[in-house]
Structures are given as C-alpha cells and as structure tokens.
C-alpha cells in the first residue's frame, strides 16, 4: 500500500483539469502545466478530488503510484499558488542585482557572473535586515514548476557554495552551515 499514492488531491475551484492518455493537463490562474501519467496508473476525478489508483501490484506500478500522485499534486499547487526558493548571498564585496533581463552577481571572481532568466522562472533580489555577518542580498527564485524552481536554485548555489571556514557564499535561507575552526583553534 502506498501511503503517498492513496492520499486524495484537492483541486481548487479556479483550476481546470483535463485528462488525456498518458498525461494530465492542468490550467490555473498562474499558468498551464502537464504531468505524465504512466499506463500502470489510473487517475479518477470526482467532486473536485483526484485519486490515483494502480492497476496491478508489480514493483514498477507500486513505485510509480506515489510518484504520479506527487507530480500531479505539485502541478496543481504550482498553477494555483506557485513555488519559491530563497537564497542568501553572504560575503564581503558580494553583490546581486537584476540587470538586462538576467541576474548579475559579483561573487569574488575576476569577472561578474551573469545568469539569464530561464523560461518560466522569475527572480528578484531583496536586501533585508539579517543578523548574518557580511550579508549582501537575498535572491528569490519563483515559478510554477517545482522541479525547475529547485534546479535553478541549486544551480545558483553551485556557483559559490558556502565556505566551511568563514561561511561566505550562496546558501538557502534557513540552511545551517557548521563552520570549521581552522588553524588558529587547533
């Protein structure tokens, strides 16, 4: 029994769902997405609730049951509310700004790092009062596709991962960095 696969998916009133063979089309106020539906899984829509059922008990069908339900639920949440990831830029001389249809950052390299906006992704740069030493800015990545938002945030973090000794770099907002002591403390 899949605990995730058996949970029902509530469909908001402003979201339209259209089922086709092999996929489900979901349209809402923020946009339109489609999620794949494998042949082993059947989706049923009744009274604004989608339920996922598997046709057999094969290992493949069992593994796809929870996955399909989660992909459909993420698509419904994305077109109705959207997803966001926030990253802190921390370091002396580090900067981030929106310029010319992309994100421009100074991350301690000899050159500025410029990232164009991927399709379907919006980025903002905020500067807020934070209690983190050498805080520069917060980058907010948002969009309707959860996987794409997460991948763009991970790619930004990969440009300058947090340093283990000083903590400078790009990190997720609530990420805890355990700093190493260094030569002085040994």
**Content of β-strand:** 35-45%
Overall mean confidence score, pLDDT = 92
CATH topology of the largest domain: Outer Surface Protein A, domain 3
With strands numbered from the N-terminus, the spatial order across the biggest sheet is 11-12-7-13
Q: Structural class of the secondary structure composition? A: alpha+beta
Number of domains: 2
Rg on CA atoms, Å: 21 Å
Give the CATH level 1 class of the largest domain. Answer: Alpha Beta
The CATH superfamily of the largest domain turns out to be Ribosomal protein L6
Counted beta strands = 13
Q: Helical residue percent?
A: 10-25%
Order of helices and strands: HEEEEEEHEEEEEEHE
Largest sheet: 4 strands, antiparallel
How far is the first residue's CA from the last residue's CA? 52 Å
Give the arrangement of secondary structure elements.
Blueprint: H1 3-6, E1 9-10, E2 16-20, E3 23-28, E4 31-36, E5 41-46, E6 49-54, H2 59-80, E7 83-90, E8 95-98, E9 102-106, E10 113-116, E11 121-126, E12 135-143, H3 146-159, E13 169-172
Antiparallel strand pairs: 1-6, 2-3, 3-4, 5-6, 7-12, 7-13, 8-9, 9-10, 11-12
């Amino acid at each position: 029994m899949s605990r995730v696969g058996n949970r029902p998916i509530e469909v908001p009133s402003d979201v339209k769902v259209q089922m086709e063979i092999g996929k489900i089309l979901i349209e809402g106020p923020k946009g339109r997405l489609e999620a794949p539906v494998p042949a082993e899984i059947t989706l049923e829509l009744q009274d604004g609730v989608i339920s996922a059922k598997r046709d057999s008990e094969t290992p493949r069908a069992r593994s796809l049951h929870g996955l399909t339900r989660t992909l459909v639920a993420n698509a419904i949440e994305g077109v109705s509310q959207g997803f966001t990831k926030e990253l802190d830029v921390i370091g002396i001389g580090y900067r981030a700004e929106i310029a010319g249809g992309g994100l421009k950052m100074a991350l301690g390299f000899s050159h500025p790092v410029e990232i164009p906006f991927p399709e379907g992704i919006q980025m903002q740069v905020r500067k807020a009062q934070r209690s983190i030493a050498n805080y520069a800015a917060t980058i907010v990545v948002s969009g309707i596709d959860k996987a794409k938002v997460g991948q763009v945030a991970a790619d930004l973090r990969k440009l300058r991962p947090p340093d283990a000794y000083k903590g400078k770099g790009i990190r997720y907002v609530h990420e805890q960095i355990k700093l190493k002591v260094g030569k002085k403390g040994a």
